[in-house]
Design goal:
By secondary structure, this protein is an alpha/beta fold. 45% of the residues lie in helices and 19% in strands. It is built from eight helices and five strands, in the order αβαβααβαβαβαα. The protein has a five-stranded parallel β-sheet.
Length: 165
């Protein structure tokens, strides 16, 4: 840990968790992703970022990420708050826990109170792992960025009409 990291944490402060896990697709990396990783790292001594494989992202979201796994992994691995990056290849987070052995799983608070979030909490309570939610960055999301990119890629309506003539 660098001096800057220590100053951000506060001199002599103890973190509540030893190993934290922050899963995500991390597609079209943006400030919301950085915020989750920064907040997560402030709560644990060692942060593992779980980067969902292309296949798992497609299974969960119905589409493949725009950025390939190897590139997303390198981006996340390079963030100063991340100590290690792990490729998630199974949908069951408890199966991932059996491989990584974290004390806490971090998610955006858009999961809180949802069926997915409730299941996550139940599953992890059974193995003694906490689920901690951080504020979701509402104004920026990969879905919004993808929509904007898709809109830019669509030809203007006038050119579609001209092509049909």
């Amino acid at each position: 840990m660098t001096e800057r990291d220590m100053s951000e944490l506060g001199a002599g402060a103890r973190r509540p968790y030893r190993v934290g896990y922050a899963p995500g697709a991390y597609d079209l990396f943006h400030i919301g992703h950085l915020n989750i990783l920064r907040h997560a790292r402030s709560q644990c001594d060692y942060l593992v970022a779980g980067v969902v494989s292309d296949e798992m992202a497609e299974l969960a979201k119905g589409r493949r990420p725009m950025i390939p796994l190897v590139e997303r992994l390198e981006i996340v691995r390079s963030v100063k708050y991340v100590d290690a990056a792990f490729v998630e290849t199974v949908p069951d987070k408890v199966e991932t826990w059996k491989q990584v052995r974290f004390d806490v799983l971090f998610k955006g608070d858009d999961w809180r109170g949802t069926a997915k979030g409730d299941k996550l909490e139940r599953d992890f309570a059974a193995v003694g792992v906490d689920v901690v939610y951080f504020p979701y960055t509402v104004h920026t999301s990969s879905t919004q960025l993808r929509r904007a990119l898709d809109a830019l890629a669509e030809p203007p309506a006038d050119s579609v009409t001209a092509e049909r003539r």
